[in-house]
Amino acid sequence: MAVPVDLPLINVRKEPDRPDRILKKCVSESDFERRSCGDGTKGGRFYDWASIQVTVKDQEPAEGFAHLLLIRRGIADRSDIEFFLVHAPHGTPHPEMIAVAGMRWKIEDCNGETKDLIGLDQYQVRKWTPWHRHITTCMLAHAFLAVQAASLGKAQPAQERMGGPR
After folding, report:
1. Where are the domains of the chain?
2. How many Cβ atoms from other residues are within 10 Å of residue 105's Cβ?
3. Three-state SS sequence of 21-54
4. In contact, 54 and 9? CB cutoff 8 Å
5. Is the pTM of this model over 0.70?
6. What CA–CA distance (Å, rounded) separates 25 from 84?
7. What does the buried/exposed string (b/e) look like for 54-68 if buried means 16 or more CB atoms within 10 Å of the residue's CB?
8. In this predicted model, what pLDDT tens digit does every residue of 29-80 receive, in sequence order?
């Protein structure tokens, strides 16, 4: 999950810290590796990635899991930096964490489509229950439309098109 630069963390030296300071103090240039976090409309979305083990202040990771700070840096604009907090089993491969971080674009695309097509944003929030129903109905409608769009153009046997055997 993307996190702000001032998220309270505990660094590897067991000192209170935050993501932007950890980047400056604990991550060297050689720690970064160039990888794609998924395909976009113009091909792979490549960034420089680094990770370092941390602990969220007052929140120990679950047994067998670790907290990692995943750092994404732009290639063309090296000041374009984003931080992700990972809670994953020990030994999770770096490419797998990067792929999961890249999935946020799919979620944002889905939310954008749902706003445009279904009216996800056409509700004035007054109470929790009606808002929850509106969101759930919009998501179900979007899922239905996605299935219908995926089935367009698929060939159907002649018997199905004609309403069964004659």
Report:
1. 2-93, 108-151
2. 15
3. HHHHHHCCHHHCEEEEEEEECCEEEEEEEEEEEE
4. yes
5. no
6. 17
7. bbbeeeebeeeebbb
8. 888 999 988 777 788 889 999 998 898 988 888 899 999 999 999 999 989 9
